[in-house]
Amino acid sequence: MFKIALFAVAAAIAATPSRAHACMNEVERTHNDDVRLVVRAEKLLESGAYRQAGKALKGWRFKDARLRERTLDVRAVVALRLRSSKDDVAWVTDHFKARTESKAGEKDIRFRALLAEAYFATGKTDEARTILADLHKRDLMPDEYAYVTLAKLSSGTERYELWKACRTKAKNKDVCELPADTVGTKRAAS
Amino acid sequence: MTPRALAIALVIASVCSACSEPSASGTPPPPPPPPPPVARVDASALIAKLECTRCHEIPKIAAAPREKHCVRCHQDIHAGTFAADAPTLARWQGRITSLRWAPSLAGADRLRRTWIRDFLLAPHDLRPGLVAQMPRLAITAEDAARLAAHLAPDVPDSAIAIDPAIVARGAELYRSLACGRCHRFTGAVADDPVLHGQGRDQVEPLGGSWALAPDLRHARARMQTAQIAVWIAEPRGAMPRLGVTVDDAHALAAFIATTPLAGPPPRAPIVRLPVLARAVTWDEVEAKVFRHVCWHCHAVPDFARGDGGPGNSGGFGFAPRGLDLSSYAGISAGSLDDAGERRSVFAPVDEGTPRLVAHLLARHAEEAGRAVPGIRGMPLGLPALPLADIQLVEAWIRQGRPR
Fold first, then answer.
1. How many percent of chain B have pLDDT more than 70?
2. Do A109 and B347 touch (CB under 8 A)?
């Protein structure tokens, strides 16, 4: 009987939807230290401070599954952008592939762009081009990294236009650096 | 309707018929028919879908949970009872002006069903003291009629002829009771914006009575004259008791329902400002517009444990749009269309206007009573952004969305 009651309680807890905090982002940020920590790391990531972003979350393992996922996202981007080892890029590709296939992530363009970036880093250029060309066609390129990656996979005027778009959208213009042949294209195009 | 209110209604109906003007043929018009039996429709499921209880109190329907209750949350913040440290509360108190009050729908049973239905389909600014107004919901005409039938009984309209002397008495009462301290009465000679402005400070401690007071211009469309009189004699919700007699309530109702109204003031045409020549960056447009206004409802779902607000995860009957306006990458990643596919919020929708700008301009059109089909005005149910802010957003988009 006790086991049945225990099971019923456990089932009720499992069936209870997570607390919805619509319009409460600011509240969460103020109240929840874990959220605050992850947000800080994400902001560092956005500003290009990859090492600090990685450090900010080093050793942390959160109870909340969503925060754990976000932490993994941060670590994956850090590994992708710093590329300290080939192993890093391999797990990053798997991570973002899983994210794009998950129910929560399948509609998130950002994961697709990151997967394309990871594909490019591992030499899977056709896969990278397919994803990014689709995003570009639909005007859904999320950031400068998507532009510069597609620029590297393009040529001629298209390459120049993508490089230009990257420069416009980048906080750090160095991100948009391309091999020297771009200069010639730029002159031809202008 | 309470038994006492019903009794007042019958008395008022008899007073009305007794004081009716003779008709052209010289015979007095027949007294209005008694109200038919109340016939309501249960639209609880629809109310749950539209999440009406996040703002409104509705009889026999449980209030929204605390963390989803917009008005209660804002009230707690202003009362200082919200669990946050003092500096944070002070910061929020300085910012939060909207959704501090919302009308209880307990009093909606006095309204005409047809008016409720039409208002749901084309909401307009009804209460000048409130910052927010009823949002333009994703609701069909059929559902709007169903919701109206849940809230109000089906009472056929009955025209009542009214003695001008009673109307004059009502006008006198309107002034002596200083109704204009809470109510605007736009278009009527009795409207007094100065008195109304003074009323804000005087009546505020009554808990939002001033803020919730409707513009009486709409009263005759919302209610039958007898219902206005009943409401004045037996108010509920935020309307204070005036202690008037049934005769006085009738006179006031007669005045409110019949005093001549000038047409609505002409609205200046919406003149889109030219695209700025100076450079506009993400930081500027984020601080002035996206972070300032949009982020509240269009945020990252994971940020608040799975709910990115009604404009991202869905809510108020809206399907999830997946739109995140809290970061550069978020806005660049677009929103979900009706088929659930991602689309750019910068793509042109009408004569080259980017979708995002079209939604912001549509709010101006809604305020002018010209809702744009297929484009919901944003911010939803809040005042339109200043045209200079829209100009900033458009300039940023036209300049290639620079960081």
1. 87
2. no
